[in-house]
Design a protein that fits this description.
Blueprint: E1 19-28, H1 34-43, E2 49-50, E3 69-71, H2 84-100, E4 111-117, H3 126-133, H4 153-166, E5 172-180, H5 184-192, E6 207-218, H6 219-224, E7 231-240, H7 254-265, E8 274-278, H8 285-298, E9 307-309, H9 312-315, H10 322-336, E10 343-349, E11 354-362, H11 368-379
Parallel strand pairs: 3-6, 4-5, 8-9, 8-10
Antiparallel strand pairs: 1-6, 1-7, 2-3, 5-6, 7-11, 10-11
Helix pairs in contact: 1-10, 2-3, 7-8
Length: 389
């Protein structure tokens, strides 16, 4: 297990300033933009296909993929045979471009960057490729590439960036991440570890890929420039499960429970107003069991029915970038239900034992017709039926 500095539990109840989300960009196999993906998630439209290499049952070498079901971007957008480092840049560039289209452009305003590259971790040249695709942005000198990256990194960087903003160490921060489980190398790793879903392993995963970027800033600064606020960062929690899935002892969900308690303790109502849970459940039995153990321990009003969302089932499991897809699902809910005052909690778990929780609260309410007209304009489509209004 890697040693990491866990972020502090979150924003205090007395905190008057808050960190808000004012722009978001996303690239997934079910949609090339945030709103394309949001609509696909809402309609549960997937984009699964079988990988080109299939293992014959009596293959003696066992070196070819065994009927892997994947959710990969269409070949016309990102060729399937791109090397990992080029694939990472091709996935992430449009997400950053979409996010930063609504970023503040005042002279002298400095934007902080936190770029997490899971797709080609540790490989040199990734940021050079990304700068070539995004010459208009002042990207950092190095990405957050580490020998051991986890699917909790995106939530970690959102919480750390929020700390920087609240302590005035930064004005605006873009947190971006990219990952793909659809490359042959990653699929073979999943196959060897017994994680791919197939006839012999119904509780495995269906691999996907994604890239996301979120713009964070202090609410006061966003109000001054008249930015639309998509959501607010309410609190976060971090913990480590003492019995990770890879160990000999079964998980007791102690880590995930602790992360939820940290996040909820920072809310005025201790989590009573959390109406929706967006988890990273992906078909693996361990994640489902851990959530089942956690759910009954964390809510002050356990009899209240809550909606559970797990976008990996529709979009595919995109590993270290799944947190961005979870965030998109939450932001889309706030957009559709513009008068909702309920909070949304996002939870993610890593095989090594790390657990993270992020709580969001609604942003600015917006007239539904105006919002839908804006979405249609971005997607280049027109209203077709009354139900789409």
């Amino acid at each position: 297990m890697r040693n990491v500095r866990l972020p502090s539990p979150g924003i205090s109840k007395q905190q008057t300033e808050r960190v808000v989300i004012t722009a978001f960009g996303l690239t997934t196999s079910i949609g090339p933009t945030f709103w394309h993906t949001a609509l696909a998630l809402r309609k549960k439209r997937s984009n699964y296909r079988e990988h080109e290499e299939v293992l014959v049952a009596d293959n003696p070498s066992g070196s070819i993929l065994r009927g892997a079901t994947i959710s990969r971007l269409p070949h016309r957008l990102v060729p399937a045979n791109l090397p990992d480092i080029q694939r990472a840049a091709a996935l992430l560039a449009p997400a950053i471009r979409e996010c930063c289209a609504d970023a503040p452009s005042e002279p002298g305003r400095k934007t902080g960057w936190r770029i997490i590259n899971h797709c080609a971790s540790g490989e040199e040249g990734f940021l050079d490729l990304l700068r070539g695709k995004l010459p208009q942005y002042d990207l950092p000198e190095e990405a957050l590439c580490r020998p051991q990256t986890t699917r909790c990194d995106f939530f970690d960087q959102v919480s750390l960036a929020s700390e920087e903003l609240l302590t005035n160490r930064a004005e605006t921060v873009v947190v971006a991440c990219v990952d793909s489980l659809c490359t042959r190398k990653r699929l073979m790793e999943l196959l060897c570890n017994g994680l791919l879903k197939d006839a012999a392993n119904p509780h495995g995963i269906m691999a996907g890929e994604a890239a996301g970027a979120v713009l964070l800033e202090r609410e006061s600064a966003a109000r001054r420039r008249g930015a639309a606020i998509l959501a607010g960062i309410a609190s976060w929690g971090a913990a480590i499960e003492p019995h990770p899935w890879t160990g000999a002892s079964p998980s007791t969900a102690q880590g995930l429970t602790t992360a939820f308690h940290q996040a909820f303790d920072r809310l005025d109502d201790c989590g009573a107003s959390v109406d929706i849970m967006v988890t990273d459940e992906n078909g693996e039995r361990q994640r489902a069991l851990e959530w089942a153990l956690t759910e009954g321990r964390i809510f002050p009003n356990p009899d209240q029915e809550r909606r559970l969302c797990h976008p990996a089932v529709t979009a595919g499991d995109s590993g270290g970038a799944l947190g961005a897809v979870q965030l998109a699902a939450a932001l889309a809910y706030f957009a559709w239900h513009r008068y909702s005052a309920r909070k949304i909690a996002l939870a993610t778990s890593d095989d090594c034992g790390e657990r993270r929780v992020l709580c969001l609260e609604p942003g600015d309410p917006c007239d539904r017709r105006t919002r839908m007209d804006g979405i249609r304009a971005r997607l280049g489509c027109e209203k077709k039926t009354p139900e789409d209004a």
